[in-house]
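Re: [ENG-882] Designed sequences occasionally contain unexpected residues at chain ends

Forwarding the minimal case from QA. Structure tokens:
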């Protein structure tokens, strides 16, 4: 992280293990298409927005523990659903970078809950 609210640009590629001959990048046990600069910038921006939202909500739900993190996540998902442009940007980020990348960029204990909920919303959203 470069600051409290901005993910480190190098973090997006820190998990890359190797390149194969197809122009794809091996990421852990998964193969993902190499993202272009616009996708990477969009992913960085939306992950920073999610980070800020989670930090703001954490002040309303102080404390630690799974129950507290779930309360923050529940409120975050509710707010995201009320803002369709943010929801669509998050869906695009999930599609472009994958959940593992987004989880790696958003450094908050509630992030995993939120991203899992967003994956579910994306799967059930009308096309």
């Amino acid at each position: 992280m470069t600051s409290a609210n901005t993910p480190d640009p190098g973090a997006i590629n820190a998990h890359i293990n190797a390149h194969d001959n197809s122009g794809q990048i091996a990421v852990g046990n998964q193969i993902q298409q190499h993202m272009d600069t616009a996708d990477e910038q969009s992913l960085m921006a939306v992950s920073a927005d999610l980070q800020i939202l989670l930090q703001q909500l954490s002040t309303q739900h102080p404390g630690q523990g799974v129950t507290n993190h779930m309360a923050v996540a529940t409120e975050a998902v509710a707010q995201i659903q009320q803002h369709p442009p943010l929801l669509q940007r998050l869906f695009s980020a999930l599609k472009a970078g994958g959940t593992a990348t987004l989880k790696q960029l958003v450094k908050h204990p509630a992030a995993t809950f939120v991203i899992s909920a967003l994956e579910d919303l994306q799967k059930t959203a009308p096309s």
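QA comment: On inspection the terminal residues look reasonable. The first strand starts at residue 16 and ends at 19. Proposing we downgrade this to a documentation issue.
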